[in-house]
Every structure is written in C-alpha cells, then in structure tokens.
Amino acid sequence: MITDSLIVSAILFSIGVLGVLTRRNAIILFMCVELMLNAVNLSFVAFSRLHGVTGQVFVIMVMTIAAAEAALGLAIVISVFRHFESLNLADLKLLRG
Amino acid sequence: MSLPLLALVQAAAAAAHPLNASVAEWVWLLPLLPLLGAIINGALSLVPNSSDVRKFRAITSLVGPGVLLASFVLSTMIFLAMRDVPHIEAPFIRNFATWMPVGALQVNWGVQLDQLSILMCLVITGVGTLIHLFSVAYMGDDASYARYFAYLNLFVTSMLILVLGSSFPVLFVGWEGVGLCSYLLIGFWFTEEANVEAGKKAFVVNRIGDFGFLIAMFLIWTTVGTLDFTSANAALSALPAGSAVLLPIALFLFLGCAGKSAQIPLYIWLPDAMAGPTPVSALIHAATMVTAGVYLIARTSPIFAGAPSASLVVALVGALTAFWAATIALRQWDIKRVLAYSTVSQLGYMFIGVGVGAYSAGVFHLVTHAFFKALLFLGAGSVIHALHVAYHHTHRETQDAQDLRNMGGLRRFMPATATAMGLATLAIVGIPPLAGFFSKDEILSSAYSRAHGSPLANATLLGIPGSAVLFVVYGLGMLTALLTGIYMTRMLLLTFFGDNRTGKNEQSALHEAPALMTAPVLVLAVLTVVGGWLNLPEIASSLGKVDRLTEWLEPVTGASARVLAGTTNVSSNTELILILAAVGAGLLGIIIAYVTSRTPVLSKDESPADEGFAGVLANAYGVDRVLDNIVVKPVSALASTVLSRGVDRTLDDGIEGSAVSLVRIAGRVGARLQSGDVGAYAWLVAAGALVILGSLALS
What we know:
The complex is a heterodimer.
Chain A: H1 2-22, H2 26-51, H3 54-84
Helix pairs in contact in A: 1-2, 2-3
Chain B: H1 3-15, H2 29-45, H3 53-84, E1 92-102, E2 105-113, H4 115-138, H5 145-164, H6 168-186, H7 193-224, H8 229-237, H9 246-260, H10 269-272, H11 278-287, H12 292-299, H13 301-305, H14 308-329, H15 335-355, H16 359-393, H17 415-429, H18 435-449, H19 455-458, E3 460-461, E4 464-465, H20 466-496, H21 515-530, H22 548-565, H23 572-596, H24 612-618, H25 623-673, H26 678-698
Antiparallel strand pairs in B: 1-2, 3-4
Helix pairs in contact in B: 2-3, 2-5, 3-4, 3-5, 4-5, 4-11, 4-16, 4-21, 5-6, 6-7, 7-9, 9-12, 9-14, 11-16, 12-16, 14-15, 14-20, 15-16, 15-18, 15-20, 16-17, 16-18, 16-21, 16-22, 17-20, 17-21, 18-20, 18-23, 20-23
C-alpha cells in the first residue's frame, strides 16, 4: 500500500523534474514545480501512516507555502509577459554575465 | 641552585631590603621627570611661530633644565639614603608591570637600583643639568629651541632607563632610545644634507652593534632561561669554569658595546656625530651615551670574568682604539673633531680598564672623563659661539668657526674659558693631582699588574699568551698617554695662544661667552680638579680616604674583579715607577707639542692642504673612503641594480602579470556560467542534486 503510493509519488516527481528541465514556457514550468510539490506531499501522507501525523502537518504547511508562492509567481509571470510580450524563458537572458 | 629557588631567594631578599620605604621607592620618578619635560617641550615645539614665541621660549628655558635639576636632586637624595645604609649587598629591585609574558620568558618593567646605577644617575643628571643650562644660552637664538630641549630631555629619559633597567630587554629599550635621540640630535639641523648623512651613519653603524647585543641576549636566554641581571649574572657565574658558551655571549655583548661606545671597527660614526649642536656632543657623544658600553660590561662583569679570553679581546680592542684614535687626533683641524677622536681614545682607556677586570677603574675613568670631556666640549662650544658672533658681526659667515687655524690667542678675549680648558687639558693628559691622572693611572697600573699570575695572563688569545697581550695593551696605553699630551696641547695652543688668526676686523667682536655658558664650564672645572678624590690610590693615602669608589662598587663588581685580579700585587715602588712613567709620557707629549707649535700657522684660507703622512692623518687614514668603497658602494649597487632593477621588477612584473591573467581567466569561466538561461540553471541544480544524492547513496 505505502509502496504503491511512493511509486506514484516518484513518478509524479520525475515528471515534474523533466518538465522543469525540458520545457521553456514559464506557466508550464510553474505547473511542473507544483507537480513536484504535490508528489512530495503524497509521500508525506503515505509516510504518516507509519510515523504518525507529523507528515500530514507538513503537507498542510507545504500547501500554504505553495499557495503563497503561486500568488507571487503568477504575479511575476504576468509582469514578465507585459514587459517582454513572451513567456519563453529562452528570451529572458538580460542577467547573463 | 635551580631557577625557581633562586627567584624565591631573591624575593626574600627584596622583601627585607634595607632601602624599603626609603626615598629609593621614588626611583621610578627619575626617568619620568625628563620624560615630562620632553612631552611639554615636544608640545611647545609644535606651536607655530607667533607673537607669544618669547613666552613659550621662557617656558622651555624653565622646563628643560628644570626637570633635569629635579632629577639630579632626587638622585642625590637616593644616593645619600644609600650611603647611610651600611651594607647594601643586593640591588633594590622594583617591578611595575609585566612586559613580555611569553611561556617561560617573563620580562618585567623593572628598575634596579644599586651602587653602579645610582653613580651613573648622578653623572647623567648632574652633568646633564649643567649642559642643559649651557644649552639655554647656546641654543637661545635657534628657531627650533623647544624641539632641541624635547630631544635632549628624551635622551636623558632613555639614558636613565638604560642605567636603571633591571633586565637586558629594559636596558635595550634605553639603549635604542639613546640611539634614536643621538640620531635626532646629530641631524638636528636637518636642512644641511651632511648632518642628515652623519645621523644616518651613526644609526646604521649602531645597528651592527645592536645585532651583537641581541644575539648575546638570545644566547643568555637559551643558556640560563632568564634575562634579569641578577638571576642571569648569578646563573652564568655558576656555570662550570671554562664553559664554552660564555665566550660567544661576552664577545657578542662586546660587539654591542663597541657600536655604542665607538670602538674599532665601529668607531667611524662618532667623529661625524659632531655635526650636531656642541652641547649635544658634550652630553651624548662624550659624557653619557658613549659610555653605555663601559656600563654594560661593568653590569655584566660576571660574564666577562668567566671568559678571560673575551676580557683580553676587550682590553686589546680598547688599547688599539685608544692608540689609533689618538694618532688621528694629532692632525685634525676642526676643534670638535680633535675632541671627538680624543673621546674615542679615552673610551678605549675605559675598555682597557673593564677589559683587564679593573671594573671600578673603568667606571672611575668614565666619571672623570664625563667631567673633563664635557668641560672641553662646552669650552669648545663657547669658542665656536664667540667666533660665530664675530664672523656674524663682520658678515663673513662663510668662515669656518670650528677650525683651529681660525682661532689663536683667544685667552686674551675669553680668560675664564681658557683657564677651564687648560685645566681640563692637563687633566686628560694625566697631570697630578687632576681627575684624569688618578683614573688613567689606575687603569694602566691594573693592566700592568695583571700581566703576571692572573687568569687573564694565563688565558690565551688566538694562541698568544695573555701576559703578552697585556704588555701590548700596557705599551699602547703608555704611547696613547704620550699622544694625548701632544694632541691636546696642540689644540690648546692653537686655540688660546699665539697670535689671533680670526681676522683683523673680527677681533673687536670677540668676547667671553655669557655667564650662563661660563658658569657650567667653571663648575665642571672644579669637578675636574677634585674628581680624583673619588678613588685615591694607595700611594696617595695622605690626601684622604683611598679607594672610595672601589669600595662603593664592591657589591656590584667586586667579586668579578677579584676573579680576574689573580694573586700578584704590585709593590708600591713599582707603582711609583708606573705613575712616574705615565706622567712622564704626558709631560713629554706636552713638551713635544710646545716645541712643534713654534712653526707659525696661517688661517684656514691661507693654509695649504696637508700632504704626506700629515694628510693621511688629517683624513683619518682614509678609513671612511675605504669603507665607502668596500661596503657602502657595493651595497647600494647591489640594491639599485640587482635588487631594484633585477629582482623587484622581474618578480613584481611576474607576480603582477600572472595574478592579472589568473583573475581574468577565472572571470571568464565565471561569466560563462552566468548565462542568464534559467533552463541551464535548472540543469545545473538537478545535476548538483544528483551528485549529492549519489554521494549520500555511495557513503
């Protein structure tokens, strides 16, 4: 039962990582990060069966932070789009050394 | 005796010292009073010239000699307190703070009061007060009046630290302090390059001596683990007889003394040091600082007593220096240079004294020499001052006011100075009953008597038996006595007798120096006459108590003197012959000088340059030029070509260039990494995470 949950969690996490590494669209990137967070949440919940409720408390914590991050992140994405008229991260290279 | 036990014994001795709670508790004030003067005068010297300049000068005139007088009064009180206590065997030591607590090395800021240090304090502050008073008149018109007194007071502070310090490092502080003040005062008129050069020369030559002193300190520390005089002397004299380490310690210490006290081969700085104001020459380069080496040997006498070969070296170098410098003094024309070489020569006598283990005789000559040489320098200062005024009067300032050829017949114009300098000349030549006679005679007879049956006579120096060395020392001492008679009489005759060569128009402006300058000279003249009573020889017992100074110094140097004295005693007949010989040599010198002085002398501008051997002597054997060629020039060539152009530039450019390219490459690599591409960053983060995870999994 836990093993299954952990496998699902690992698959979800890997999808998220691959998305972050390969995609260039800021929104997609954002969604992939959320995916990774939720994969971790899943494994937390799964482990809480073994080690008590601490894991679930963590999940609540992660979801709160993720909500805040999403609010900030989307605001930034909107500003970026207004400025550059593009969400392709390959175009955003003003900070290169 | 182990060291901690030794310390305990000393602590017990200190606790019950007869000087406790007496005026001696105030001994720390001795160096602090002149320091206060130095601070006040130093502050005044920073005040820009203004309308109040007269008021500030008055303060300086009051503070400068005033602090010295206070110090002298305190020294006298301490001396009287010490004299009233019948037996002071152990020195009176007070530690005020810890200076260097490094592991087992414990150096304290401590003063050590004993018979030797209070004697030195009396000479320094007493003669110092007179010279400070003289300076008030001599330097009165100088623009840097306050600066002069600040340096002079600072010098006295350092000198008192030197003689009162209770350990080698504290003495070294004073040792370097007097060196610094000497440098500052030689180059006092720093607008003339020659003066600055002379100051630098004195400083650099003294460095060589200081190197020896430092090495000696290191050796003492590694051998006995302490640097306090009392415990180091006790531990070093407790070493088994003939310990190999005593010889290098003594020789390196003597190298330090040779630098400070201008002995061969480090005497070359002293004649040039005459570039400073004349009272400075009297105080620093005749009466006090240059005698620091003699003091140091007396202070560490157990070391030299334990190394008879080193003592032979001291005596031999002293004798050679005495003779060498006396020959140069025969043909100097600058009055101050005559006196400078004479000082070097007399310092040589002192080293003969302490070298043959007659420590009280060496210190005795130190004291009497301080009297008559300070007098001679101050008198020379009065003469130079008078000639300056005269040449200033006729606007011929370019004339040399220090050249003997421009003097002559001055006794008609300056009778008091002439009388005093005449007395001092007789004293330095060794005519009885003046001070120099007794001290010089004691040194020469000590050298003679130790040539038989003493540890010194039995020791060898490079295979030469010590008795032979001592006879050479005695012979050179006698020859020097003859030469002293010649050159001092020559100087006196050229200055004060014969016709005046200053110039027709100048004669009306030649006058005796002001009272403030003649008064110290006359006080010194009295001391020059009666100074011999400090330590009358056995043979003069009808004149008063004999060997007063030797008895006074007995707790400090008595034991070491007895170690080197050996068994033989000179009979009073022999002593009488020795005395007659020494006095005869001096008288013969006077007669020779008198006879040769009949050849008339022209003024400096009209005189031809000295030729032949006279020229060699006038050039001081060309030692300076030789040293310039074999030391100074190669060193500066090495510095400018090899070190500056070679090493510095290649190395600098190399290091600089490679450093620049290194930074540039690192910058490029770093800039590549900062591509601004978020995707690339993400890959790097992932790769990093993988590396961490992998290393965790593997461990």
